[in-house]
Design a protein that fits this description.
globular
Length: 183
């Protein structure tokens, strides 16, 4: 039976890392990445533990197995993952509804991943509905950036309710900054 919950122990964090490794960009054929999607940042157990001490992430489990995750990354997490500092800096230069994005209460979706055997079964939606249920009273929205070549992820986020607020290119890729407004 599939159910959404928050991370509660080190074993679940390790399962997140195992799942992350399966879909890390560059680990699979580019055709598979194009069809199935990918994740771009490799985390360590230490970093995940620091992130989860601030705000536990959402996972979907099948029995005892973590089959999907959606990482909660509060603004304080920016110091844990230096490669994401430019993303946080970009957020400081975005206007949303005639206000600076930084003036809102938000967190960043640090990464989303669903095991391929569970795709197309509503798991992605289950992850995000649990986010909304647990975090929408504390935050105005969730924001993230997605490589525009990751069309599977772009489509899934749009279906959930995310809207693109800016696109930009850097030395690694072209990115869409998307947010899901809960106000």
């Amino acid at each position: 039976m599939l159910y959404a919950t928050t991370v509660s122990n080190k074993e679940e964090l390790q399962q997140i890392l195992d799942l992350q490794q399966m879909y890390l960009s560059g680990e699979n054929d580019t055709t598979i990445e194009k069809e199935q999607g990918f994740v771009t940042v490799k985390h360590s157990l230490d970093v995940l533990q620091q992130m989860h001490a601030l705000s536990p992430s959402i996972i979907v489990k099948d029995g005892d197995a973590v089959i999907a995750y959606a990482l909660v990354m509060t603004k304080e997490c920016r110091q844990f993952i230096p490669v994401l500092m430019p993303m946080f800096e970009t957020f400081n230069h975005i206007q949303y509804k005639d206000r600076p994005l930084a003036s809102y209460s938000f967190y960043v979706m640090g990464q989303v991943c669903v095991h391929e055997n569970y795709r197309g079964k509503g798991v992605f939606e289950m992850l995000y509905q649990q986010h909304k249920k647990l975090l929408s009273t504390k935050y105005d929205f969730v924001v993230t950036e997605i490589a525009t070549r990751n069309t599977r992820s772009i489509r899934a986020h749009e279906k959930t309710g995310f809207k693109t607020v800016r696109t930009f290119k850097d030395v690694t890729d072209e990115w869409a900054i998307v947010l899901w407004d809960w106000t």
